[in-house]
Automatic annotation (TrEMBL), chains A, B:
It comes from Candidatus Methylopumilus rimovensis. The active site is at D45, E117. The lineage of its organism: Bacteria, Pseudomonadati, Pseudomonadota, Betaproteobacteria, Nitrosomonadales. GO terms for molecular function: double-stranded RNA binding; identical protein binding; metal ion binding; ribonuclease III activity; rRNA binding. This is Ribonuclease 3. The keyword Magnesium applies. Gene3D superfamilies: 3.30.160.20, Ribonuclease III domain.
Length: 227, 227
């Protein structure tokens, strides 16, 4: 890999390696050489999981651990990582063996995602956690900014319904307990009732939907605990 | 939680919190309060996975990603974490609700392991990655020092055999290709042959066993790729 291509990738990832051998290893698929990137991928995967967990934890103080975990899974799944890799043109730099070249391996999502994780591992080994954090933050900035904590809460009703269906239980009934305040700033209290499981929970919110979600979330956790 | 108990735990974990509220939350089980430790546990789990991955990567440059992953799983599994938590007497500090107190929740491996992970998350939030790294290194020092990379390599032959048995394939035959050098520094080249799968790989090493393991490891990966 010549210096020009190395410099070109450095510009793309906004990071210049102190030791370019880390970068070269990160770009090397096992079909190309025994000095391939799979150990770096293992390392990069764990660095990425940690950095995303930390970012989500700090950004969303009110999201519970289950939702944090689902959000992270969403962000670091293969298709997300390969989309980021594609957007930075990483495929052009991957070193592949002949067979993989012929079958256009540089376009395969698994290879793109693995190489992206390897790059993360390589930056971490080369520069430590701080530049890795900066790289990951840049890569995921848009996706992190697009997360709407309100939409995550929406999952609670769906989750509860799925859980109850899987247990062949009756579905929850949501009742309005009270609506207080003026028209422009009402507070809803909603009860979620699952008859068969003898569960009654309440949620409070500025809209009926939010209150239902909170009640559903509580019921969901009670259900899980009783299983 | 009074200052004396806080100081006592600080001595045990060799870390004094700048903000003791992190420590208190880390010790709080969901049965005790809504301000419980499950978000911290999510964070601590990912910090721990990352730190152990990084430690294993650096300590064992010749162990492949599959074995690194298995080693990590071994180190961070619930029973390992609860053993560490027990050895530091963490159970005495966990804040449990009445029900959990009655059923001796402070001795339950899952609660001990979760609290241990929460403490890791709390140290990370309070002090950053460096003190967390030091804490984790201290906790896992003995276990990390006990890992024998030679024993891990032994797995390749076993893994290959198990894989072949699961596929109802014939078992591999190991043949000596060559033995070179003087008696005190011989180099063995061993071939691993799996007839039915038409796989032939070679391993080289200073003992027959090492060469066989290498040949087995290569055959194992070829088998996996062809599946």
């Amino acid at each position: 890999m010549d210096k020009e291509r190395q410099a070109s990738l450095s510009r793309i990832i906004h990071y210049t390696f102190n030791d370019p051998s880390f970068m070269i290893m990160a770009l090397t698929h096992r079909s190309f050489s025994a000095q391939h990137n799979e150990r770096l991928e293992f390392l990069g995967d764990s660095v990425l999981s940690f950095l995303i967990a930390s970012e989500l934890y700090k950004r969303f103080p009110r999201i519970d651990e289950g939702d944090l975990s689902r959000l992270r899974a969403q962000l670091v799944k293969e298709s997300s990582l390969s989309a980021i890799a594609t957007s930075m043109g990483l495929g052009d730099f991957i070193r592949l063996g002949e067979g993989e070249l012929k079958s256009a391996g540089w376009r395969r999502p698994s290879i793109l995602a693995d190489t992206f994780e390897s790059i993360i591992g390589a930056i971490y080994l080369d520069g430590g956690i701080e530049p890795t954090h900066q790289f990951v933050s840049r890569c995921f900035e848009t996706q992190l900014n697009e997360i709407d904590p309100k939409l995550i809460q929406k999952d609670a009703k769906t989750l509860l319904q799925e859980l109850l269906q899987s247990k062949k239980s009756d579905l929850p009934i949501y009742n309005v307990v009270s609506i207080e305040g003026e028209a422009h700033s009402q507070t809803f209290t909603i009860e979620c009732h699952i008859k068969k499981s003898n569960i009654k929970t309440q949620g409070v919110g500025n809209s009926r939907r939010i209150a239902e979600q909170e009640a559903a979330s509580k019921a969901y956790h009670l259900m899980l605990e009783s299983m």
